[in-house]
Amino acid sequence: xxxxxxxxxxxxxxxxxxxxxxxxxxxxxxxxxxxxxxxxxxxxxxxxxxxxxxxxxxxxxxxxxxxxxxxxxxxxxxxxxxxxxxxxxxxxxxxxxxxxxxxxxxxxxxxxxxxxxxxxxxxxxxxxxxxxxxxxxxxxxxxxxxxxxxxxxxxxxxxxxxxxxxxxxxxxxxxxxxxxxxxxxxxxxxxxxxxxxxxxxxxxxxxxxxxxxxxxxxxxxxxxxxxxxxxxxxxxxxxxxxxxxxxxxxxxxxxxxxxxxxxxxxxxxxxxxxxxxxxxxxxxxxxxxxxxxxxxxxxxxxxxxxxxxxxxxxxxxxxxxxxx
Amino acid sequence: xxxxxxxxxxxxxxxxxxxxxxxxxxxxxxxxxxxxxxxxxxxxxxxxxxxxxxxxxxxxxxxxxxxxxxxxxxxxxxxxxxxxxxxxxxxxxxxxxxxxxxxxxxxxxxxxxxxxxxxxxxxxxxxxxxxxxxxxxxxxxxxxxxxxxxxxxxxxxxxxxxxxxxxxxxxxxxxxxxxxxxxxxxxxxxxxxxxxxxxxxxxxxxxxxxxxxxxxxxxxxxxxxxxxxxxxxxxxxxxxxxxxxxxxxxxxxxxxxxxxxxxxxxxxxxxxxxxxxxxxxxxxxxxxxxxxxxxxxxxxxxxxxxxxxxxxxxxxxxxxxxxxxxxxxxxxxxxxxxxxxxxxxxxxxxxxxxxxxxxxxxxxxxxxxxxxxxxxxxxxxxxxxxxxxxxxxxxxxxxxxxxxxxxxxxxxxxxxxxxxxxxxx
Lengths: 324, 425
Fold this sequence. Notes:
The complex is a heterodimer of chains A (324) and B (425).
Chain A: H1 28-48, H2 50-59, H3 62-66, H4 75-93, E1 98-100, E2 110-115, H5 124-132, E3 145-150, E4 172-177, H6 186-190, E5 196-198, E6 204-206, H7 216-220, E7 226-228, E8 243-245, E9 257-259, H8 264-267, H9 274-278, E10 284-288, H10 295-302, E11 305-306, E12 318-321
Chain B: H1 18-37, H2 41-67, H3 82-96, H4 98-105, H5 110-137, H6 160-188, H7 198-220, H8 233-259, H9 266-297, H10 300-310, H11 319-337, H12 345-363, H13 387-415, H14 421-424
Helix pairs in contact in B: 1-13, 2-13, 3-5, 3-7, 3-8, 3-12, 4-5, 4-7, 5-6, 5-8, 5-9, 5-13, 6-7, 7-8, 8-9, 8-12, 9-10, 9-11, 10-11, 11-12
């Protein structure tokens, strides 16, 4: 960085290769100086970029660099990738984890509904998400943000996520917001490399090993549902949730996007999302929209439900309602 | 640093065969290399300073790749910052060069025709900077190949970013071809064959419009960001580009006139000043129209612009930028109104610098950041670029100036006829 290519420092007979610019009229002293300058410049450039060399030595194998898109991996390739990722978790975090590949079930489209009349704003859903999905401990990240709203207004301008007093406050109501798993998802449309897509059961997922980290999806999402890994996530090994899935809660690499997946590693096995199980008031209703007998369908059919920012045409699979 | 895609015109009635070109093109490259590395002491000092700044930026970027992007001030609320701000501005600078191409090739302005290469080379250097800023903004630059058509997965046509990849690289190739072909022909001492460059020049005019339009569509297509979601965005991008581009070129032309033997007719500067005089007024008109709509209507569409001008409570990081930009633009417009401003070069230069800086702010901090403040859930998080971001930005600008200097260093002697194939014989 501090080397200056035109210093006379290399005035002695060093063995620098002369560049092919040694035209007949030029003085040899000048050529020598130039060669010295080029050498110094090249050395400085190599030094300046050395952190990248360190980083790639530790974090990037040839296999990882050349890995194909998730949807183009065959069975064996995917199995190899999963074993490799488990190995990484052991090496980088000292944790024994199992990383599965949970596929959508036939005849299932997931929907979520949230009863705003009984949500008390305790933020236990956000905390459960934090642990279930192996979020970075340093930033206390979660896919759920709980807005404290002023009664009498649905305008988020009057919302506040940084409330710090006993809940529920009598003049307020509470509105948790997470990925709305839109049927017309702007985040999916804008992705230049198809690193994010909508699965058959309605869940929008990210291939963390394909994402280039341009953050266009984060700009496009109207619900602040997406998060970026600004650095390598830090989690103590004893806190790591070892039950993981490729498309959901495995520990994310640095520099890629992530988002709520309706806990697909749970819900595709018939369990409920972690945020629902943590809710102390039963404000959350989750289920299969295609099943007419499901609880979620009963809510949608019988309550006056609404979706957030309906005017944007995103067609969320996440519904809100009041009970009176 | 020279353009490599000279097209081999052996197909037509050209007397030269491929072998001739193989030999003479190598000579051309050798000459270009010599021109790019020979110079006065001030040239070496200039290049050394730029190289040092570039290395500082390269190192900062390497650290960013290693440590992650939390060395920047960006966050999940303001997820684009200084890099994308500069990218947006530089797409405009690249498109701005077309304001020389149109007078030169459509209106056959003689002076402009002699100097149009300055604008075309600026387009090349600007696009190089654009691509560098995009790479700087990527969380995973090692996965850059995912974005390449056929090799990776190219989400075309639905993602506007893939359109941007196409138009920016296409514009780069077009200008490399045009400049490379004309330079090579001049070097051979031959008259360029119109069929080999005029169609490309006309294509490049339309293409210049497309690069800034597509870049505006990146933002204006996002329904969740009311500040960007306006149909006026693309026209505003273009008009401001047609202020910033000519402003930069006017200054460069004067520097070239002072430092080299290239003939810079006063007609070029006069024409560019006349163009700026109009475009800056249209730009201000459109800006005023946005301000009216936002403030008179109120509601959610006005929140970001209110923050831009007056801040929000104690948060007012963008307020000084905004007012500086506006004041600079108004002063520049008033100076340009002077009927014979091109005869008062000092005044013209002041106007150019003010307009250039004003638009850099408006297309950067004033456009990208308020798209994110307040966030989509109306959280208020401010953004002030970090030291790493400033370093990387400076490094990329230095790299761009290195490219531009070298391109001009080769092109000017060739075009002013002081170097040609005969010198090497």
